[in-house]
Amino acid sequence: MGIPLTSVLEAGVAIRTLRKRAGIRIDDFALTAGVSKQFMTDLENGKATVQMGRVLELLQRLGVKVVLELPESEVLSYRDELSKAQLRRASRQSRKRPALAKGSESMKAGTDGANAGD
Predict the structure, then answer these.
(1) DSSP H helical segments within 46-117, as ranges?
(2) How far apart are alpha carbons 59 and 111 in whole angstroms?
(3) 28-69, pLDDT tens digit by residue?
(4) In this structure, are residues 11 and 50 in contact, taking their beta carbons and an 8 Å threshold?
């Protein structure tokens, strides 16, 4: 059954309901989900500043499929914008990787040099 979510509180109540029905304590769920107990408490109490990505991960972990229902007239625009956003993200990530690799090479070279004098 589809239940519209219009607030963090509604998402939090859904997560709390599913977690409790599964017999999972809040601290145990937080630990296995890789979030803090405080994050879970904030979410389940509807704190508006919780991170959306984590909320979606927790819903997935509980077997909840989140569906965005768009007007038919907006689906093509959405898909186009999503493709652009994914390309931008991939481009940013590929630019970060060489910088990270250079940094680790410098550290490795520095470490090798330090060991050479021993």
Answers:
(1) 52-61, 72-116
(2) 44
(3) 999 999 999 999 999 999 998 999 999 999 999 999 988 888
(4) no
Quote the pLDDT of residue 78. 87
Q: How many CB atoms lie within 10 A of CB 43?
A: 24
Q: Name which of 8, 9, 22 is nearest 62 in CA terms.
A: 22
3-class secondary-structure state, position 49: coil
Tokens of 16: 């709390």
Residue 35 confidence (pLDDT): 96
Cβ atoms of residues 18 and 46 within 8 Å: no
Q: 81 φ, ψ to 5°?
A: -65, -40
Question: What does the alpha-carbon distance between residue 5 and residue 114 come to, in Å, rounded to a whole number?
Answer: 57
Mean predicted lDDT score pLDDT of the chain: 84
- Residues 39, 30 contacting (CB under 8 angstroms): yes
Residue 51 to residue 41: CA distance in whole angstroms: 13
Residues 6+ apart with CB under 8 A from 22: 62
